Amino acid sequence: MLMQEEQEPSSKVAKPRIRMNPTLSGFIAAACNAVATIAFVMLVPGLDREYGMVLFGVVPLVVGFSSALLLGPKEGASWKKCLLASMWSLLFVGVGILIFALEGIICLVMALPIVVPMLVMGAYGGWRVLGVVKRRHDRGISVALAVLAIPLLLNREASIDRPVVRHVETTSMVIHAAPEVVWKYVCSIRKLPKANELLFRAGFAHPTDIELMEPKLGGKRVCRLSTGDMPEQVDAWQPSQRLGFRVLDTPPSMEETGLYGPIQTAHLTGYFLCERGEFNLERLPNGDTRLSGTSWYANRIAPDFYWHLWTDSIVEAVHVRVMNEIRNRAEKDTTESHIATGL
Known about the structure:
The structure is a single chain. The chain is about 50% helix and about 20% strand. By secondary structure, the protein is α+β, with helices and mostly antiparallel strands. The strands form two sheets. A seven-stranded antiparallel sheet has the order 1-9-8-5-4-3-2, covered by helices on one side. It is elongated and about 90 Å long.
């Protein structure tokens, strides 16, 4: 009798696991994250109008966090790869913002010093979570919760009456001319030369013409900026000593440029407000004049500790532009007067 040998059950052959190149996986994760972020910014009401800690703090934090979690394979990923994925995400988000004309080039560059540290912090947090949470399902929930926190925090931020922060900026210089000569150009200085300063060439508002219509207390004065007219009313009038004026309306703070030319964004009006300006003239012992210019302005963009560094620099540049031209014209008049009188 033939004995039939029992056949051992064949063991299941495991399918080979496809492993994606880590660099490519990080690139894909960053691209997906960027698309989701751009869509989120466009769909969440108010995110493109509330220039506060949610936009400049929470959003980059979430982008960095989600980049790390979307990148990591089941066994985790290195900190370097997580950081690289977050940086790719930031680049893609920036390009998307420009493509959809949500912001201009200059404003994106200005935001980098505050956005990048928050992005790195988010990436680090995501990397640490990645080392603990192994299941993709759980990582997806973590990303979803982080993203959903944005509209909640945005709504909370919008409900708080954020205080307007006020600043004072003063600039002084010595002019080799008598206060009576300087005073003439302090009141009105027509047709300023074309601006060559880097800030103004980048599009920030700067004076092109200043005219005093009524030389008296309460008189009208207008400072014509590159972005529009800024009407003023004289509230301090001491000839050859002091000129003060209240700003009645502030034109757009800059001409923003996108990929397709000039664009209009919410922060250009109503977020930077000029409130008052003043010139003081001091006669020095040698007959020269110490001219001091002071501006009072308000800023509504948060965090103020960062953005006022930019606004102070811009206001200072405006002071220097105007006062340099006052000095040039006053000293030229003085020189011509000395030549005419033979002094």
